[in-house]
Amino acid sequence: MTHSISSKVKLNNGVSMPWLGLGVWQGRPEDGEHVELAVRTAIEAGYRSIDTAAAYENERGVGKAIRASGVPREEIFVTTKLANPDNGYDAALKAFDKSLDQLGLDYIDLYLIHWPVSAHYLDSWRALEKVYAEGKVKAIGVSNFQIRHLDAVLASGSVVPAVNQVEYHPRLTQKELHSYCSGKGIQLVAWSPLMLGRILEEPVVRALAEKYGRTAAQIILRWDLQNGVVTIPKSAKPERIYENADILGFELSAEDMQHLDALNRNERSGMDPDKFEQIWGLK
Fold first, then answer.
1. In a domain, 155, yes or no
2. Which terminus of the chain is less hemmed in, N or C, by CB atoms within 10 Å?
3. Which residues form the NADP-dependent oxidoreductase domain (predicted)?
4. Within a domain: 187
């Protein structure tokens, strides 16, 4: 059970990752000051995990805010991701070095393949294994991978992914994938845990918020953590960043957890891993 914002889960290679982090998707380079403010605010609020990606084009601002925070580097867990056009062994190696340079850091805590580009993700995984072996990254993993993708990685690679970061919320509980990852020692991480805010108007969620004296967002984020899922809600608003951090002083009952589970519709707010290549023009 997570009792404070500093609580961590131990990944399959022994590296500790905070249960709660800040996501910075949609913090574009033209909004650099806003990204830096969000990261600075999160660190001041006690967050010690920041999640970005090369595709977000804001790694430079994230790194600047981390370096300016005054918090020792080893206390902040930094995640970034390989962009789709950079999949492939050589391209992924170059992309990793570019992300490291953009962040202005000596190492990355967690590096992920952002999406399973079918023609290249196994070659990309070999590249991630190389930078991991060289000590440039503390842990490697994947994002938006389905069971068949994970099976392929496990069959061809020598390192078990430390995490699988996927869309996860009460309307998309992904129980089969969650069970698979748990069985393989792969930590599930939730992106879009609030479903871009759409889940917050659910009557069940609103009723539970009233029952526990919490916000709807806090109810959902608490559900994530009690399901053993690392959570990285995105926000650029200081008040929401603080609000999202205040989810560790209460616990949902088993019955209420089931009420939230029952909201599942296998509904996505983001791209479907089975269809994203068509959208990206990768097929």
1. yes
2. N
3. 20-264
4. yes
Q: Are 170 and 260 in contact (CB under 8 A)?
A: yes
Number of domains in the chain: 1
Are 165 and 189 contacting, i.e. CB atoms less than 8 angstroms apart?
A: yes
* Residue closest to 162 by CA, chosen among 11, 33, 3: 11
* CA distances from residue 264 to 23, 24, 214 in whole angstroms, order as listed: 23, 26, 22
The CA distance from 198 to 219, in Å, is 14
To the question of whether residue 114 is assigned a binding role by annotation, the answer is: yes
* Domain-embedded: residue 124: yes
Q: Could you tell me the two tokens for 203?
A: 């009557």
Q: Which of 56, 111, 121, 168 is catalytic?
A: 56
CATH number of the structural domain spanning residue 249: 3.20.20.100
Q: What is the pLDDT of residue 30?
A: 47
CB-based burial, 76-108: b 16+ in 10 Å, e otherwise: bbbbbbbbbebbbeebbbebbeebbebbebeeb
Quick check: 16 and 9 in contact, CB under 8 A?
Answer: yes
* Residue among 37, 71, 17, 33 nearest 240 (CA): 37
According to the model, what pLDDT value does residue 273 have?
A: 87
Domain that holds residue 74: 8-280
101 contacts: CB under 8 Å, gap ≥ 6: none
Q: Is residue 1 part of a domain?
A: no
Which residue ranges of the chain lie beneath pLDDT 70?
A: 1-3, 26-32, 278-283
Q: Which two tokens stand for residue 280?
A: 């990206």
